[in-house]
Amino acid sequence: MKFPIFLIALLVSSAVLAQQHTPLPHGMVYGTKPDTQAMMNATKLESFMGKKTRISTTIEGRVIRVIHEKGGWFELDAGGGKVITAHFKNYNVNIPADIARRVVIIEGVAQKQFIADDLQHLAGDTVTGKKQHQVKTNAKRKLTFEVKGLQVDK
């Protein structure tokens, strides 16, 4: 009596373990569907931004890795060894870890991390009067991207 039960349990467990994981289908959307009208490559984002510290845009790039599935935290390849750290504006969006090494289209707000001017003192009035504070971007810092929508492309 034990042998047939053991045989059935062995067959069921081998069938469960042998199942192939289905890949993410092309066109799968997380969040809202991105507008692909004025899309650019992620490698051109920093040069497109120029001196601007924040822009709304749609980019296409390859996901390097998924940091946290909850909230959709991931890294995107920006070319030349640079990385764009991206996360969803809506924390309730969950992305699968299988999205790593896939090409995606994301829409949202790109932002350069910046540090305040070294001469800034208490961010207010100085002895000579009010001063316009300059923003200095650091090339070693990452770009950040707040994602509204993501679509799996390839």
Descriptive account of the structure:
This protein is mainly beta. Helix content is 14%, strand content 38%. The protein contains two helices and nine strands. The chain has helices spanning 2-17, 45-49; strands at residues 29-31, 39-41, 54-68, 73-77, 83-88, 103-112, 114-116, 135-137, 143-152. A five-stranded mixed β-barrel has the order 3-4-5-9-6. Strands 7-8 form a two-stranded antiparallel ribbon. β3 (54-68) and β4 form a beta hairpin. The chain is elongated, with a radius of gyration of 23 Å. The termini are far apart.
How would you summarize what this structure contains?
The chain is mainly beta. The protein is built from 2 helices and 9 strands, in the order αββαβββββββ.
Q: Helix segment count?
A: 2
Mean pLDDT: 78
Helical content class = 10-25%
**Overall outline:** elongated
Within the largest sheet, what's the order of strands? Answer: 3-4-5-9-6
Helix-strand topology string: HEEHEEEEEEE
* pLDDT < 50 stretches: none
Give the radius of gyration: 23 Å
Biggest beta-sheet profile: 5 strands, mixed, barrel
Number of DSSP strand runs: 9
Topology of this structure?
Layout: H1 2-17, E1 29-31, E2 39-41, H2 45-49, E3 54-68, E4 73-77, E5 83-88, E6 103-112, E7 114-116, E8 135-137, E9 143-152
Parallel strand pairs: 2-3, 5-9
Antiparallel strand pairs: 1-9, 3-4, 3-6, 4-5, 6-9, 7-8
